[in-house]
Amino acid sequence: MRIGRAAGVTDTGRRRLRNEDAFICEPPLFAVADGMGGARAGEVAARLAAAALEDAGVETKGEQGVTAMIVEANRRIWERAVADPTTAGMGTTVTAALVDIDSGTVAIGHVGDSRAYLLRDGALRQLTTDHSLVAELVSSGVLTPEEAERHPQRSAITRALGTEPAVDVEVLTIVGKPGDLYLLCSDGLPTMLSDSAVASALEASDRDPTAASEALVAAANRQGGEDNITVVLFELAEGEPPVPEPAAAASETIADEPVPQEQERESEPGQEAEASPASLSRHGAGPGGRLAALAFIVAVLVIGALVLYWGFSK
Ligand code: MN
Question: Which of helix, strand or coil describes residue 159?
Answer without folding.
Answer: coil
